[in-house]
Amino acid sequence: MLVRDRAFFASLFLTVLADQILLFLVPLVVFRITGDVAWSGLAFFFETLPRYLTFPVAGILCDRMSPVLLLRLSRVFRAVACLTGIAGQIAFGGVWWLIALSAVAGVLTTQGLLALEMVLVRAFADQRFEKVVSYSQLASQMGVVLGPLVAAYLMAVWPWQAVVVVATVLFLLSDAAFNLWPGRSRLTEAGPGSKPRHPVADLVHALRLVWTLPGLSRAILQACGVNLIIGATLATAAAMMTGHFAQSEQVYAWLQVGGALATLGVLTLTAHVHLTLTVLGRTAYALIALGALLTGIAAHPLIYASGFLLIAGFDKMFNIYLRTLRKEIIPGEEFGKTTGVIICLNNLSQPLSGLVVALFAAGDDARSVLVCLGLVAILLGIATVRVR
């Protein structure tokens, strides 16, 4: 990678680091304030639902506006949302300001992710794309690994409001680093697209493709099963580790780091071991379901951690399966808007799992909910394999 592009990847790393600090902090602080895992589930529901509902809209905006502008706005407005959430919580108290901060930041992250994808494709068209993606994943994964550790150790000495201020500064620094990248000058305009069409017509056309193209609806149902598990795990992990298993916040942070390292290991395995697409998808799905059952029946934190690592690691293998399948099925000229709709449909089960946790979990123990959602995912997976 050229030296002039280092500012771009430094900006990506700082953005992911700030996002991971918020993702780690919000469920932990909500549980600390309320002492009830149901509130963590409710916070996860309100955080993730707007994030995934806005994917189709974000995709259309990326086709109509400069991705550089959208990427910068997503970072600056996340910093503004952080400061607004802190001010509201200090002035009025309660957990709703923190939940609102998380929801707004999630929507802006959605727009930033799609804009980043457009920037990668257009700005590095003269370079080998596999190499570009490798560098971007490396920068992102460094943020994923360090984010929970930074948040946990800062919260040990500072109030959570100060940690949110750190995230705010990181968002602003990421925007400053992006401004130092020379390549942004080549991306001031929206990219070429298909003939102008009303946004509603774009969405209707994308939904029609999802229904008619062979294999897409099956893949969406499988992704819904996986995301039921992912959502429930993310919504309850903080409460389970620091509450039910009585571990420190630092131990919970190391669990998150372990999940990121497991992801790196699985990605390395996937890159070097050739598996057919069907085997790849079924292997990942089965091990994620096994992880869900382990977290649900765990009587010891090590058993819970083993299930958590299976879920975190093989989620990325399943993502590779989905992305490869989409690339093979969806026509190139329809890829953007169709992918935005698919990502939205894939992930709607995540906020649903948070709502289930809020309704049925009690205190700091969510194991029965985790087992039930794991069984639902297993039945859904079996149904998609047997029914054609």
UniProtKB/TrEMBL annotation:
Per the record, what is one GO cellular component? Answer: plasma membrane
The answer, when asked if Protein biosynthesis is one of the entry's keywords, is: no
Per UniProt, the keywords (alphabetical) are: Cell membrane, Membrane, Transmembrane, Transmembrane helix, Transport
In the record, which residues are listed under signal peptide?
A: none
Matching entries from InterPro entries are given as:
MFS, MFS_trans_sf
UniProt keyword Transport, yes or no:
yes
Instruction: Please list the GO terms describing molecular function.
Output: transmembrane transporter activity
Query: Pfam family example for this protein?
Result: MFS_1
Q: How does it sit in the membrane?
A: Multi-pass membrane protein
Please state where this protein is localized.
Cell membrane
**Superkingdom as given in the UniProt entry:** Bacteria
- Transmembrane region(s): 7-31, 37-55, 76-99, 105-125, 146-173, 219-239, 251-273, 285-314, 368-387
PANTHER family attached to this UniProt entry = ENTEROBACTIN EXPORTER ENTS, INTEGRAL MEMBRANE EFFLUX PROTEIN-RELATED
Give the protein name, as stated in the record: MFS transporter
Q: What is the lineage of its organism?
A: Bacteria, Pseudomonadati, Pseudomonadota, Alphaproteobacteria, Hyphomicrobiales
